[in-house]
TrEMBL record, chain A:
Belongs to the FliE family. It holds the Pfam family FliE. This is Flagellar hook-basal body complex protein FliE. One of its GO terms (cellular component) is bacterial-type flagellum basal body. GO terms for biological process: bacterial-type flagellum-dependent cell motility.
Automatic annotation (TrEMBL), chain B:
This is Flagellar basal-body rod protein FlgC. It is found in: Bacterial flagellum basal body. The basal body constitutes a major portion of the flagellar organelle and consists of four rings (L,P,S, and M) mounted on a central rod. The rod consists of about 26 subunits of FlgG in the distal portion, and FlgB, FlgC and FlgF are thought to build up the proximal portion of the rod with about 6 subunits each. Keywords: Bacterial flagellum, Cell projection, Cilium, Flagellum. It comes from Thermospira aquatica. GO terms for cellular component: bacterial-type flagellum basal body, rod. Residues 7-31 form the Flagellar basal body rod protein N-terminal domain.
Length: 110, 151
């Protein structure tokens, strides 16, 4: 069974097949968000992680650009992007540690 | 305000000062260019900066002066304009660009670039860059201090 889509290969980015019944729904697209303004906590957490990942990717992209065509990008832009990525990771790590500590507090309750 | 608003604002400041430094370097490099494609000597260029967002924002309908300026989002380059000061006249009849006839016969038009002025501008751009970098470091330290709250 093929898990990646031949139509969505761009460079080193490979799109996954989204039309299998094991995936979201067999219409091949992600279900729309409802009008309910309250998002489940897991979704908020995942979108925060996604944002952190996006920061990492921005920093990587700028570093690549710096190596390939140094004329087009300033040093401070690269530094700021990598600093943003680092701060995002630190922030996420802190939040995760706090969550785990809270969970442990609950588990070890007697 | 986003998590990294300070980084974005100061980053725009850093970019603007880098451009100022480039323009100053070009002025100094062309301080003796007597010919340009437009004719006449080189003219000193200046960078004109303006805020990215200085529009008034609506604060509250209970305030008589409900429109107030927001925090702003940094600086952007409006344009690079030419300085219209008259050129420096230097007497040098053997120069190929010397004026052939008239009142200024034998004079050469040199660019209106004053090296001392450019040096002062250069130091100013340098110091502004440093100030923006200091701002970024301070914001970073604040962020890390905030993270150490939960320790």
């Amino acid at each position: 069974m093929q898990i990646y889509s031949r139509l969505e290969v761009a460079g080193n980015q490979v799109g996954m097949v989204r039309t299998s019944k094991q995936h979201f729904d067999d219409r091949g697209r992600i279900t729309q968000a409802s009008d309910d303004p309250v998002a489940p906590f897991a979704q908020v957490l995942f979108s925060a992680v996604e944002n952190v990942n996006q920061l990492q990717q921005n920093a990587d992209e700028l570093e690549e650009k710096m190596a390939v065509s140094p004329e087009e990008v300033d040093v401070h832009e690269v530094m700021i992007a990598s600093e943003k990525a680092r701060l995002g990771i630190t922030f996420m790590k802190t939040i995760v540690e706090k969550a785990i500590r809270a969970y442990n507090d609950l588990v070890t309750m007697r | 305000m986003g998590m990294f608003s300070v980084l974005n604002i100061s980053g725009s400041g850093l970019t603007a000062q880098r451009l100022r430094l480039d323009v100053i370097a070009n002025n100094i490099a062309n301080a003796t260019s007597t010919r340009t494609t437009e004719g006449g000597p080189f003219q000193r260029s200046r960078v004109v900066l303006r805020p990215i967002n200085d529009r008034l924002t609506f604060k509250s309908h209970l305030l008589p002066d409900a429109l107030e300026p927001g925090v702003g989002e940094g600086v952007r380059v409006l344009k690079i304009e030419k300085d219209e000061k008259p050129p420096r006249m230097v007497y040098d009849p053997t120069h190929p660009d010397a004026i052939k006839s008239g009142k200024w016969k034998g004079y050469v038009m040199y660019p209106n670039v004053n090296i001392v002025e450019e040096m002062v501008d250069m130091i100013s751009a340098n110091r502004s860059y440093e100030a923006n970098v200091t701002m970024i470091n301070s914001a970073r330290q604040m962020f890390e201090k905030a993270l150490s709250l939960g320790k």
